[in-house]
Amino acid sequence: MNNFGFVFATKMLVESRRKVRFMYCEQPDDPYDSGWRFFCGDEDQEYADNPDNIGIYDINTILEIDGSILPLLNSPVGTAFEREDENAPFTRSADFAFNEEVD
Questions:
Q1: Predicted pLDDT of residue 62
Q2: Among 39, 36, 66, which Cα is nearest to 53's?
Q3: For residue 37, what is the enclosing H or E element?
Q4: 49 SS3 class
Q5: How far is Cα 45 from Cα 43, in angstroms, rounded to an integer?
Q6: Structural domain range at position 80
Q7: Is the pLDDT of residue 102 over 60?
Q8: What are residue 41's phi and psi, to 5 degrees?
Q9: Is residue 100 part of a domain?
Q10: How many domains, in total, are found in the chain?
Q11: Pick from 76, 82, 22, 28: which is nearest to 47 by CA?
């Protein structure tokens, strides 16, 4: 995908080449940011809050690891998806709260 913008993902997901189990799109604050954030689902809050554990990646890096996210990437800001395990289908996350207002 060209001109998508960068994404944030945990290093646990990328370095271990784990499939995405939780993803959300927030309002980007940079014109090159897609707003997408990706997690493998095993990260605790302390891990996720540490900026050393988060990397900035091209979307193609994440798609090489887990192509099943592709159909969800056109979802609007304010959406979140999760799945029970790496082989389950994604469902919209009903209990994820955004810390900001979404237009």
A1: 97
A2: 39
A3: strand 33-39
A4: helix
A5: 7
A6: 6-92
A7: no
A8: 100, -10
A9: no
A10: 1
A11: 22
Q: Is 81 part of a structural domain of the chain?
A: yes
pLDDT tens-digit series, residues 49-92: 999 999 999 999 999 999 999 999 999 999 999 999 999 999 99
pLDDT in tens, 13-41: 999 999 999 999 999 989 999 999 999 99
Q: Is residue 70 part of a domain?
A: yes
Q: Rounded to an integer, what distance in angstroms lies between the CA atom of residue 53 and that of residue 70?
A: 24
Q: Which of 55, 22, 15, 56 is nearest to 38 (CA)?
A: 22
1 has pLDDT over 70: no
Question: Does 101 map to a domain?
Answer: no
Cα(55)–Cα(69) distance, rounded to whole angstroms? 18
